[in-house]
Amino acid sequence: MKTLTEAEQKFLDHDWVNDKKWKLYLSNLYPSPSIHNIEKYKKKYFQKNVDKNLDVNASFGNEAVKEETPQPPNSQAYGNKGYTYSGQVPLMTFFFSTFVLCVSLFYFVLLSLNISLYKKMATFMSLSYFCAFLSLLYTDYKTQKHNFSLVQFFSSEKGQYLSYSMILFFIKDAVLIFLPIFFTLLITTYLMYKQIKPLLPPAIQRNYYLNKVVSYLDQTILNVYLMRANIEIYNLVFIVICLFMKRVSLLNLIIYLHFFKLKYSSSDSYFHACYAKNGEMIRQCLSHPMVPKAFLNVFNKVSHYFNAYLSYRRR
């Protein structure tokens, strides 16, 4: 067995989960590294920012790295154990989720063009997303009866977006609000399709357009995660602005803050990376010589108290 150098041991012991600079570095990479080659970017980052003695070309104990390679949160249901979907329930959930996604695209077009038909569809769309995540809850229950727990579900990403769907009943005319849950359902449906594909009729499996969409998602799925994370952060600002314009109520802001806090306390590395990146961008803008220093001080104070709120846990 190869003896590790001091730099290699430090690399293996590094706390990647809580390294905000690493998350910021990861979010700035374009195109986003794939799950399979992210290790080399870790080594480059570590050599540049932590220990320059690390040999980035050396292969050593990759399996011992404390933080697992960032994976799409939905690719594994709970912890490290992925679901194996089988039977009729996942198929029904898959087709219903696909239906909701397709109708959503039509709804987004109506909203963008400000066609009044969207007002008649608004409640239906909100209810559809709520039912879609309820169906995912039922699917998880049917698939993992012995290991299923409501506490686990509601602390998972699907549970977070089930609570997020509540806000859709109050804000029905903003595509920006719909996009995070749309992307989440898209990711979940894509990952589910990967597992249940053998159960589908041959005509669907061989469908050219469906395979084209899946192939495209294979290449861009990490970008979808980053896009969703950024939109979730911008939505908070959007809702605050809408509150001052009296387009939303204080209750809507409270619901979204609850969701935002759940995301902040989750292990979603994409969300944390985008959150850190956007904060750094604002600080850089406010640090410009032409901007009064008071603005930067106010932002630092507000961000400090906001982070304290997000980090607060009841004992």
From TrEMBL:
Q: In the UniProt record, which is one GO cellular component term?
A: membrane
List the subcellular locations: Membrane
Major location category of this protein: membrane
Where does the chain cross the membrane? 91-110, 122-141, 161-187, 233-257
Top-level taxon of the source organism: Eukaryota
- Which Pfam families does the entry link to? TMEM33_Pom33
Single GO biological process annotation from the record:
endoplasmic reticulum tubular network organization
The membrane topology term of the UniProt record is: Multi-pass membrane protein
Keyword terms: Membrane, Transmembrane, Transmembrane helix
Membership in a protein family: Belongs to the PER33/POM33 family.
In Swiss-Prot or TrEMBL terms, this protein is called Secy-independent transporter protein
